[in-house]
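An instance noted here:
***
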Amino acid sequence: EKLNAVTLTYKTNKPWFLNISASSGNFTGGDGTSPMPSSVIQFKNNAGGTYMPLSTTSVSLSGTSGAKNPKGSSTVGVDYKLTPGFGYPSASDYSIGITYTVSTI
């Protein structure tokens, strides 16, 4: 678990919301016959909430399209917890892209 692993800084003149998603369903690296899924990474806004598994489906990290955050400037911290277990082959490097999307729509 890494608390406040990422700090996102924003400045906006419109109400906004922030989503998070994985760039692919599985990590690269390791053995192709037993890929490690993105869901071994769990995330949450460090202001509160519960951990959720990362997936390719965009999920709210702060606010929603129906309940936007007010305009202004500040930061959003992201906590991460990795739960891969021992079922995946060892590799010198596993990687996956994570996309943060700020929107006013």
